[in-house]
Amino acid sequence: MSDEVHHFESKADAGAFKTYPQQAGTIRKNDYIVIKSRACKVVEVSTSKTGKHGHAKCHFVGIDIFNGKRLEDIVPSSHNCDVPHVNRTDYQLIDISEDGFVSLLTENGNTKDDLKLPTDESLLALLFLNLNTKPRSFECGAYYVNLFVIIKDGFSEGKDLVGSVMSAMGEEQIFGLKDIGPTLTSY
């Protein structure tokens, strides 16, 4: 018998994997997949036939859910791909700072203050679509400035805004804002 002592470190997130395996041939359009270590939404899938020297292959085209970049990968259809655990959570928007950080109210009554409005023009355009409004100008950086103004105006008008946060693989980002009506005040 060996007198060696083995020590194992455990982490708080032990067992909480960021991805899970799924056979490439079962992944479809609008599913999620990891391409080049980034969580992506699949926008296009094509499968080639089995060749002389191998498996049928799946060609995936995905859009990174956090930066909007287009990524591609080719995987044998019988092999496993990593699929991210993607979560979407809605929080009530409490405030927005001058530097674009938002204050969100969690379900248990705490505040979440570590998220900033996206600055990428294409991601900001999606936020405008969710608010059913159009930016007041199309100059460079105007989306960000206009969204900031719309949120501040919404607060002053008593609107109740909800921010949708998407999280996957250790990243999270605001990807949607909704106006759910005026804030109710009790007398």
Describe this structure in words.
- With 187 residues, the protein is mostly beta strands.
- It folds into two domains: 19-84, SH3 type barrels (Roll); 87-182, OB fold (Dihydrolipoamide Acetyltransferase, E2P) (Beta Barrel).
- 13% of the residues lie in helices and 44% in strands.
- The protein has two helices and eleven strands; from the N terminus they run E-E-E-E-E-E-E-E-E-H-H-E-E.
- The protein has a five-stranded antiparallel β-sheet.
- Strand 4 (57-64) and strand 5 form a beta hairpin.
- The longest helix has 15 residues, at 142-156.
- The chain is elongated and about 65 Å long.
- It starts with 18 loop residues before the first strand and ends in a 5-residue tail after the last strand.
- Residues 6-15 and 134-141 have low confidence and may be disordered.
- It comes from Escallonia rubra.
- Belongs to the eIF-5A family.
- Keywords: Hypusine, Initiation factor, Protein biosynthesis.
- One of its GO terms (molecular function) is translation initiation factor activity.
Rounded to an integer in angstroms, the radius of gyration calculated over CA atoms is: 22 Å
* Fraction of residues in H or I helices: 10-25%
CATH architecture group name of the largest domain: Beta Barrel
Report the strand count.
11
State the domain count. Answer: 2
CATH homologous superfamily identity of the largest domain:
Nucleic acid-binding proteins
Outline, from the CA principal axes?
Answer: elongated
Sketch the major β-sheet. 5 strands, antiparallel
Question: Order of strands across the widest beta sheet?
Answer: 9-8-7-10-11
- The CATH topology of the largest domain is OB fold (Dihydrolipoamide Acetyltransferase, E2P)
Number of helical stretches of at least 4 residues: 2
Mean pLDDT: 78
SSE order: EEEEEEEEEHHEE
> In what range is the share of β-strand residues?
35-45%
Structural class, by secondary structure, is mainly beta
Q: Give the uncertain stretches in residue-range form.
A: 6-15, 134-141
Give the N-to-C terminal Cα separation.
77 Å
CATH class division of the largest domain: Mainly Beta
